[in-house]
Write a structure and sequence with these properties.
Number of helices: 2
Structural class: alpha+beta
Length: 136
């Protein structure tokens, strides 16, 4: 594979992976207050994204891919809200295990990584165009 094509392919894989991460963070933030609807029901459980290395055999390039979109384990916090339909016998309701501060920090990191990959993609594209101009 052409080295300049390889640069854009690597950057594109990073953009795809970080785009998935941004989507998952947005889903987590959107559901930060989503509780169950029946007594004792579990609320929304935070999603997580795992990455893995993918080797492009023709070029030997290491790329990134989303290996798993999973669910964060752990206990839910409880809040006292006896009027909520999901309240247990003592008036407590399980709330999602989403911390919006952590999600916003994750969003910022994913956004910056996406932007860095986009800049690398554009740099690879510009280099390829310059090589083509030199060959004219």
């Amino acid at each position: 594979m052409d080295p300049l094509k390889s640069i854009t392919a690597i950057a594109a894989s990073g953009m795809r992976a970080q785009g998935t991460r941004i989507k998952v963070v947005a889903e987590n933030v959107a559901n930060a207050d989503t509780r169950g609807t029946t007594p004792g029901a579990d609320p929304y459980r935070r999603k997580t994204v795992s990455f893995s290395e993918m080797v492009d055999r023709p070029s030997g390039s290491s790329m990134v891919e989303v290996s798993n979109v999973g669910r964060a384990e752990g206990d839910f916090n409880m809040v006292h809200d006896p009027s909520h339909p999901a309240a247990d016998g003592d008036g407590f309701v399980k709330v999602p295990n989403v911390n919006t501060f952590i999600e916003m920090a994750d969003l910022r990191e994913a956004s910056r990584s996406y932007e860095a990959n986009m800049n690398m993609f554009e740099a690879g594209r510009r280099m390829r165009n310059r090589v083509l101009d030199l060959l004219k």
